[in-house]
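Collaborator request, handled under Task 6.
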Amino acid sequence: MPDSPLSASPYDVLGVPPTASQDELRRAFRRQMRVTHPDAGGSTAAFDAVQRAWSLIGDPQSRARYDGSAAADEQPQVWAPSAPRARQDTRASARSSGHPGGWYRQRYLDEVRAWIGLGDPIPDPYDPALVRRAPWEVRSLLAAAVAEEETARRLGTLGIGFTLWHDVAAGDGKIDHVVLGPTGLWAVQSADWGAPVTARRGDLVGDGIEPGARPVRETVLDARKLGRSAHVRFTAALIVVPDGHADGVEDIGEMRGVVTLLAERSRAVDLLRRGIPGVAIGGTDLFEVRSRLQAAIRFI
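Structure tokens returned to the collaborator:
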């Protein structure tokens, strides 16, 4: 699994700037080892992150590889758009339309050009060294695009009983994935805030979520806007985050008649197949909802 564009650099983990001397790096490493050690009240994950950071930049040779173009060996250029993967089985995939991640990728490319300087050449806007240096706001656009693309690949395995629309306009906002199948009509948002999130008071909180932001509420409101224009009603709103950024599947609660949930990416497809107890769409109802959505959906 590739690192997220929002993953902390080894310099961030050690708490030093990229210009730090080797002595400063060594002192920072020893300090962070003491602070994060589980026996001193730290977490295993933080302790492991410190050790990994040191393995990347702890000696001049490793640091030179990380800081230079050869750092791609550690973080392969997996963020660039790639051709669809060949299917490994003969099962029919879900019907799909739209371009997942396309809107965020275009914004990322625009912002990278503005950050580098208009007119200056950018040999590869997805070069890992370039991405690491970019401001958080720029990297977050690429992280959002990658999150959408990864979720879309998973959703494609739902099977022929499901229909998918990606990057759907909903008033002034957008819904990353609209999923229709026997388990209902779902508004699915793919997110990567660069850190774990959890449900609290009907929405999500986490280190990567701006104070006051309400991503669940925004998703529900966007779903209702699309629902009104298509004369359909959404069953649920699902926020999908990278594995390790949520505790499996969490029931956030019901908001304005829409069930809201949070799920790790690897759990999302099973959740959509299994559905919510007592909620289903079938037969002529499913055909009617699909027809209405086909007529109303516009891609962003």
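The cover message to the collaborator said: "The chain has two domains: 10-73, 95-296. The longest helix spans residues 136-155. Please let us know whether this matches your experimental observations."
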